Amino acid sequence: MIDWIQEHAAASWLGLAVVLALVELASLDLVLLMVAVGALAAAIVAATGGPVWLAFAVLAVVSLLLLFAVRPSIVAKLHGGPTLTTGHATLVGRDGVVVEPVDRRGGRIQLAGELWSARAADDTMYDTGAEVLVTRIDGATAVVTSKEI
What is the DSSP letter of 102? Predict the structure, then answer.
């Protein structure tokens, strides 16, 4: 077995790279993937006739370089994901229709098919039927302003 590995060094490194990449599929931590790429680099060294010590050195240097230089940015992108607006925050920026007159003290609007208590963001009074824009949600109250056309 050891004789075969020595005679087929490039294939051995390539096999190691494939095994590491397959095991990476189970862990999804991207550590073994970086070592697998290092093993591919070592396979290239072995295929070009480089000595074994050089293949191991290339494996170590490429793997460490990828682990500390490339992996952190990839992990940050994978785990970052898009910001997802949920809950009442999704109502900000939507239009509503005044059901009961709205002023600074209160009122009611129809917003996203529901009745909401509302108050004006400024000193403006909005009459029934007026279209307003939700600028923020304050507890269970929609703070509204005039809808600019």
Answer: B
φ, ψ of residue 92 to 5 degrees: the values are -65, 130
| Of the candidates 45, 21, 43, the residue with the CA atom closest to the CA atom of residue 33 | 21
Fold of 87-146: OB fold (Dihydrolipoamide Acetyltransferase, E2P) (2.40.50)
| H or E segment to which residue 33 belongs | helix 31-47
Whole-model pTM: value is 0.56
Question: What are the tens digits of pLDDT across the range 98-107?
Answer: 999 999 999 9
Pick from 69, 88, 95: nearest CA to 138 = 88
For 14-53, write each residue's pLDDT tens digit. Answer: 999 999 999 999 988 999 999 999 999 999 999 999 999 9
